[in-house]
What does this fold into?
Amino acid sequence: MKKLQLKINHSIEKLESKWNALPVKQQHQFTKGFFIGYAVITLFAIFSVWFTSGQSWKILSIGHINNIPKDIRIQTNTVQNSVIQSQQKVSP
It folds into this structure.
């Protein structure tokens, strides 16, 4: 675990030294670019949620189920049917 922590610390120090080696003007440009990218992604997510929630005007009604629709067919268990048939054949 210590080796992993040392590798992470080393990579962070290396990245920080690269960042500090950049001129201040370029650091500001990178910072502005990252902020603009973050803002665009945030606005896109907010717009997406607003758009999808705006389309769902229908309210789902929850109530008691009165009966099964006629077009649904209930299948019986074939294993139980075969056992019953085999028992009927064995009995005299």
